[in-house]
């Protein structure tokens, strides 16, 4: 029982706060509950397909292939593939983290994982098309041309500033998932 409370401590605290808010102000409490319920439904619709695709990626793509195309010696090919995979992805950013964990299991270079996460959050193709139709081609193209080098620079700086020991611990943790 103690393990249960420790594991779900954050959830239970938020639930208690939600109940307290509802006791103080029912309108705000019910609105918060509606938002939380909507978010939970949205997550439940996104996460299962992501995990199915991850299972297929884990089984169908050999580790050696991932290392060849996105591992330590991949160079520009790995960077471009990371940007392409992140840009073509669908779904909210929280869907990218399980993919990143599988990439770690497969031996993808840390910098390429960071680029993938940056591309997923910033350069999605549907978002680019929406921006082109809503804000104009020049704005959308300019934003994309600024974002891509920015993602690469940030990923490079982060990969150089994080210690090798810490990165190795991340890879070990990903293996244990």
UniProtKB/TrEMBL annotation:
Primary localisation category: membrane
Protein's cellular compartments: Cell membrane
UniProt keyword Methyltransferase, yes or no: no
Keyword Nuclease: no
Membrane topology: Multi-pass membrane protein
TM ranges: 42-61, 81-104, 110-130, 142-159
Keywords for the protein's UniProt record, in alphabetical order: Cell membrane, Membrane, Transmembrane, Transmembrane helix
Pfam families per the UniProt record, alphabetical: ArsP_1
GO CC term (a single one): plasma membrane
Family: Belongs to the UPF0718 family.
Protein name in the entry: Permease
């Amino acid at each position: 029982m103690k393990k249960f409370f420790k594991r779900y401590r954050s959830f239970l605290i938020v639930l208690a706060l939600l109940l307290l808010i509802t006791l103080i102000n029912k309108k705000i409490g019910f609105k918060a509950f509606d938002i939380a319920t909507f978010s939970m439904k949205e997550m439940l619709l996104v996460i299962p397909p992501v995990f199915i695709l991850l299972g297929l990626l884990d089984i169908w793509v050999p580790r050696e292939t991932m290392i060849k195309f996105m591992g330590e010696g991949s160079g520009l090919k790995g960077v471009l593939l990371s940007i392409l995979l992140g840009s073509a992805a669908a779904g909210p950013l929280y869907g990218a983290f399980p993919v990143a964990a599988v990439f770690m299991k497969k031996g993808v270079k840390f910098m390429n994982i960071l680029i993938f996460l940056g591309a997923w959050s910033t350069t999605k193709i549907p978002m680019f098309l929406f921006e082109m139709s809503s804000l104009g081609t020049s704005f959308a193209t300019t934003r994309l041309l600024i974002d891509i080098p920015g993602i690469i620079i940030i990923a490079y700086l982060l990969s150089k500033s994080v210690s090798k020991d810490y990165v190795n611990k991340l890879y070990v943790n990903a293996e244990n998932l």
